[in-house]
Amino acid sequence: MKLFWRGCVLACLSLAFSITCAQSGERPRIEGTYGIIAGQTLASSKTKPLRRRARRKQSDKFSNILLYTQHGKAVRFYDDLVKDKVVMINLMYTTCPKICPVNTAQLARIHELLERWMGRDITILSLSIDPNVDTPERLKRYWEVFGSKPGWLFLTGDYDEIDRLRHELGVYDLDPIIDADKTQHSGIITIGNDRTDRWIALPILMHTEQLAATVLRNTWDRHWRREPSQTRQLVKNELFRGQGIVRSIDAGNRTVEIDHEEIPGLMPAMAMRFKVANPAMLKGISRGQHVVFRIEHTKDKFRIVAIEPLGD
Does 61 share its domain with 164? Predict the structure, then answer.
């Protein structure tokens, strides 16, 4: 949790610094593994990043790298995805065992709340930080698990270029050891309107409806087809059915780890530790058992509300 909030602070400070530079007339400086000489970025020997003319905008520091969508389409990060658009950008990878499934499920709920604007006025960009594994085909399957929602692009490309862009977005840790461990990447979402040059960074797991309202409040402009109004309330929590094999039980902390199959609309097959609503339901459950369970997704949390051994 400390790493999560540390990432939030770093991302927000990075955005604030860049905006200050833009307002003062300076070209934002990009720190990290790439230096600045006379306004030019020193890239890796493999590729020279595409740069645009200085426009004194927050997005000026974003490399216009080549990416591929989950549909296999080649796109440029700035020219095709960000220029004059409203975007929500997060980092993920399909084999992530910790924060990614929770974050992606949260984004799916945000998509539902903002459905009337998604794909027309707002686009979600999910960038893989493990692009050597995450092919377009693999990303498409991941997208399908979370509902094949329009206006949501999962993107892969060259590892070094995506890593450079990650630093340009400010989503990195100052500790190089932590930063190099992709399992500890921060749960940050970067939200911006390139037309108005307004950008913010927020924790993905903040209150769902508050996050959706913040997106609307900070990105709306006269180009939108529909003027934002109060986002609709979620009238009920969502229940999902899953099954898998119990790997461990911690009754004291009211948790159970389950190596489960794909849970359609919620998360791919993986091993994950869940909270249980009532520790008494763990009685009669043992390690190695094949179980069926119902999981409740309420606002920004998951918890198992029912679990029992799978019958023969």
Answer: yes
Residue-wise pLDDT tens digits, 199-238: 999 999 888 888 888 898 889 888 776 666 544 444 345 6
Instruction: Supply angle C-alpha 26, 30, 32, rounded to 5.
Output: 155
As for how many domains the chain has, the answer is 2
What's residue 237's pLDDT? 59
Average pLDDT over residues 77-89: 96
Q: Which of 167-181, 228-242, 260-274, 287-301 has the lowest mean pLDDT?
A: 228-242
Is 98 part of any domain? Answer: yes
158 and 285 co-located in one domain: no
- Report d(CA 128, CA 184) in Å as an integer: 14
The reply to whether 13 and 160 lie within a common domain is yes
Domain boundary among 189, 219, 249: 219
Could you tell me the pTM of the whole model?
A: 0.65
Cα 204–Cα 142–Cα 306 angle in degrees, nearest 5: 70
Q: Identify whether the C-beta of residue 47 lies closer than 8 Å to the C-beta of residue 161.
A: yes
Q: What is the pLDDT of residue 224?
A: 76
